[in-house]
Amino acid sequence: MLRQDDEHDGVTAPFDLRAIRRVNVGFTSSTRNAMSVFMFSSTLRQTTLVGLFLAMTVSTASADWNGFLTTLHKGFFRNTAWPDPFNEVDAIQVVAPFEAMKRNGWRSHNTIGHALFRTGDGALLASGQNRVRWIATQSPENHREIYVLQGANPVETEARVQSVRDAVAALPTNGTSPQIYVTAIEAPTVPGAIVTKISRDRMEQMVPPKLPTTTASGTSGVSGQ
After folding, report:
1. 129 DSSP 8-state letter
2. Backbone dihedral region for residue 120 (phi beyond 0: left; psi -120 to 50: alpha; all else: beta)
3. Whole-angstrom Cα distance, residue 161 to residue 123?
4. Which residue, 17, 59, 93, 144, could crosslink 178 as a Cys pair with Cβ 3.0–4.6 Å?
């Protein structure tokens, strides 16, 4: 028994083929042909819908299966390669703080502070000239960066930068010249008088050199003879 969707109220009404054949007796041939075409179209439409539904179901199942196989293979190879590549990521995360410390250390070391400039006009002192010379010629090439500590006002800061530029231009640098940056971070320093006192006290309290009295084998050494 076939079914046709009612276009008016959405109710599905059954078709009785035997009843339709009995009714067809009183119809003309053109009417019977039209009814046959209508019944064939309805059957074809239902068959098409069923085919599309089956195709969508097969496609979805195939996609799910492929995704499952991909996840399975990925998990297998990850478990086989463990702890790679996760240990490389952990190593990078461990080293990252030390890299930041090194960059901050070089920035602090290459900072030209207040004590290396003349007050007022921002000219470099002799100690400042020596610091700029060492950074431009002796420091590693990837750390040849000069940080100028900003002055009390923009005019003084610009004078300091220009003084450093003139000092760098007068040096026989090989390769590229060091980059010059302005910074507001003052490098931690110690007054020169304290450094001098520490160095002198260390020299005065240094133990005089002395040869060992015995050798590694236990025999008498040079000083014991």
Report:
1. H
2. left
3. 9
4. 144
- 100 against 172, higher pLDDT: 100
Give the residue among 141, 158, 130 at the shortest CA–CA distance from 106. Answer: 141
- Give the separation between CA 113 and CA 186, rounded to whole angstroms: 7
Q: What are the C-alpha distances in Å from 35 to residues 10, 26, 40, 42, 149?
A: 20, 13, 9, 11, 97
Q: Which residues of 172-209 are buried (b: 16+ CB within 10 A; e: fewer)?
A: eeeeeebebeebeeeeeeeeeeeeeeeeeeeeeeeeee
- In this structure, what token pair is assigned to residue 44? 């074809």
Among candidate residues 141, 107, 154, 146, the one with its CA nearest the CA of residue 124? 146
DSSP string, 35-86: HHHHHHHHHHHHHHHHHHHHHHHHHHHHHHHHHHHHHHHHHHHHHHHTTTTH
Provide the 8-state DSSP code for 148. Answer: E
- B/e letters for 33-65, b = 16+ CB within 10 Å, e = fewer, are eeeeeeeeeeeeeeeeeeeeeeeeeeeeeeeee
Structure confidence by residue, pLDDT tens digits, 122-167? 999 999 999 999 999 999 988 999 999 999 899 999 999 999 999 9
The residues near 196 (Cβ < 8 Å, ≥ 6 apart) are none
User: Helices in the chain by DSSP H: which ranges?
Assistant: 17-24, 29-81, 86-109, 126-137, 154-169, 192-204
